[in-house]
């Protein structure tokens, strides 16, 4: 990475922190929505509405190459796999296990980037990864006991790491618009969830709650579609073109900390001192990734030489 980063890169970093905060709120919002509607049905509804809203952006794919289109479709199928693994994994494991294992994405992403994109993460990025992982351990309570759902959560973390790298490759093509990628991803998740519900989980496909009697549910859906999907996935796809997958993973790795904070405010949950310390470490690692350390160091050296 060059000593000076373009201003749009810094903007992308801060926008990714905003996405991490928004996704942190999604856990509590989804928990409320699931009181009214089952998991696969909610996924199909959330991403189906997103696909419909973004469908006009699909016309930009007409000028894309077959290889680029294959990459976009691969990104969509990876996102479907992530949501299915996370959803069913959480059902089979403890929340603390899930929080810790999904945070392993921060460790797996530099390895995936090194293998797939031939970019070796810097020492500063590895240091931030270590701090983030320690924070995730404390946030999860420092107590890890493996069980059957852990394999699915670990697979979701690996798929997240691969997904960021695949999206990075896709977004290298200037003809691919971030909104079009988001639309394809939404379509894959919505279609895959609907098919799975209809074929093997009939209880997950139920009539929609009415607007008049279930306003809290539709309010949750509006937030999940508008903020947690339209805004969040567009920003992620926009930012990954201007940043490295490792930086994206570090910034998005602050999601569990924001989620824990939102759970305290929204759901009235209580966190231990160790959990608060872990959350602070995760956020610190994310902020560490934002600061242009190399440029600051170069400036300091220059000032010292000119003194």
From TrEMBL:
- EamA domain span: 12-139, 148-289
Q: Where in the cell is it found?
A: Cell membrane
From which organism does this entry originate? Answer: Paraburkholderia tropica
Spell out the InterPro entries in the cross-references: Diverse_Substrate_Transporter, EamA_dom, EmrE-like
Family matches, as SUPFAM superfamilies:
Multidrug resistance efflux transporter EmrE (SSF103481)
**Where is it found, in Gene Ontology cellular component terms?**
plasma membrane
Q: Which UniProt keywords apply?
A: Cell membrane, Membrane, Transmembrane, Transmembrane helix
The record gives the membrane topology as: Multi-pass membrane protein
* Main location, first listed in the record: membrane
Membrane-spanning residues where?
A: 12-30, 36-56, 68-92, 98-117, 179-203, 215-236, 248-268, 274-293
Record protein name field: Threonine/homoserine efflux transporter RhtA
Superkingdom of origin: Bacteria
The major lineage groups are: Bacteria, Pseudomonadati, Pseudomonadota, Betaproteobacteria, Burkholderiales
